[in-house]
TrEMBL record:
Keywords: Secreted. The lineage of its organism: Eukaryota, Fungi, Fungi incertae sedis, Mucoromycota, Glomeromycotina. It comes from the Eukaryota. This is 6431_t:CDS:1. Coiled coil: none annotated. GO terms for cellular component: extracellular region; host cell.
Amino acid sequence: MPITLFCLVKGNRTANAFAVEIDSGKLISHLKETIKKKDQNDFVGIDAHKLKLWKVEILSGRDDLLSSLSLNDNDELLGANEISEYWTSKLPKKHIHVLVKPPETAAASSREQELLEEVTSLKEKLSKSTHDFDVVVKPKQKANKWTVNIEQASLKDLKNYIRELYKPPALENDGAERCLIPRDVAVASFKTKLKFTVFIETPSKPFSDWSFPKVCQLYGISSDPNPDIDVFPPFLCGSADLNSDNSKAVIKHLMAEIKLRQNVTPLNKANEAAKTIYSYCYLASGVSFYKDNFKLIPEKLIEVKREDFMKGFAQASVQMESTLPRKRKAEEIDNGQDVDRVFGIVTDASEWYFMECSLDNERKPTFKLSEPVTVVYKDENLQVKVEKVLGHIVWLLEEAQKPVESGVKSRKIELMSKA
C-alpha cells in the first residue's frame, strides 16, 4: 500500500521538510535510497545505506521541539525491516514522520570544503598587487573606487586621489590640510581592508586669512568672484516672548548696563575690545534665563577691518563649520553622535546678524543669514531694538534645548564679534 512520509534532515527547520512516496511493504533500505534521490544536494557523495533514519512525530512549525529532541536506538529505522512494521495505523497529518541524519564525517567534510573554497578565493584576491578600494570621503557619503598597486601605494597618493576627485578648496596648496584616516587603515593593512572612510577637516589656517569669495567657493555657496551677502539663504531667526515679570527685570538690568557703558565708553569711540563688552551684556542677559543649562565662556575675538563687514561673515562661516566636526571623534559620526547645527552671531554691537550652519543629507555644510537688527544707541527707541536683539538670543537658546531628533546629541551657539 502506498504511503507518504514527511522527512526532515537533522539540523533543518520543519519548513524544509519534504515528502517521499513509497510502498509500505518495502524495506527501510529502499526508503533510504528514495530519500537520497529526493534530496540529492544534501547527500552528495553519501551512500544511501550510510543514512540514519529515526521515526518521529513532530508537528510542522514546532521547531522548538527539534532542539530538545532525544534520539535513541529504539526509534531508529533499521534497513532490513519493512516500512509497515513502523507505521501500522494512519499517519498523523501535518507532522514530520522521519528524521534523516547524514554521517558526521560527511557533514564536517561539507563545511570544510566551504572553508577551503573561501580561503582559495581570498588567496586569489590577495595574490594581486592591484586592488579596488571603496573610499568614502566625509562629509560626502557615496563610495568611490580607488584602483591602486598596494606594493607602491602611500597616504600621499590617497590624498592626491581625493584632491583630484573632489577638488576641495580645503586641500588647496595655499591652505593647511588635514586628511584623517582611521587608525586601523594604513598601507600595510590595505591587503585586508577593501573599504575605509576618510575625513577632511576644515583647513586650519587662521580665520582672518579667509575672504568672503574664498569662503563661498569653499562651501559651494556661490561661484561669483564678488559675491554679496544675499548669496546666503534667509535665516528666519525667531524671537522669544519677553513679557513675563522675570523678562522685564532682565531687560531693565540690561538697559542699565548699556547706559552705564554709554556714559563711560561711548560706542562711537570704542575699539574692538570695548564693543565686545557691549555685546557681552546682551549675551549675559540671554543666558541668565537658562543659567542652569548654559555658561557664557569668552574664547576669542575675531578682528576685521572696520570697513569690511563681509570679512566677518567669512570668518564666522569657517569657524561655525569647523565646530561641527572638530568636537567629535570619527567613529561618533557613524553612530549619529554629532552636533546637528551651530548658531552664530556676527555683530559690532550696533549691527546684529544671526547665522545658522547645519549639515544637509549629504553631510555638507549649509548656511543661512538673518536680516540685520540695527541698534542706534542714541535713539529714543533704543529699548525696542535692545529687546528685539535679546529676544533673538533667547530664542536661539531655546532652540538649543529642544528634544533630541534623529540621533542628534547637541547644538552649539557661538558669538563672532566684528569691528
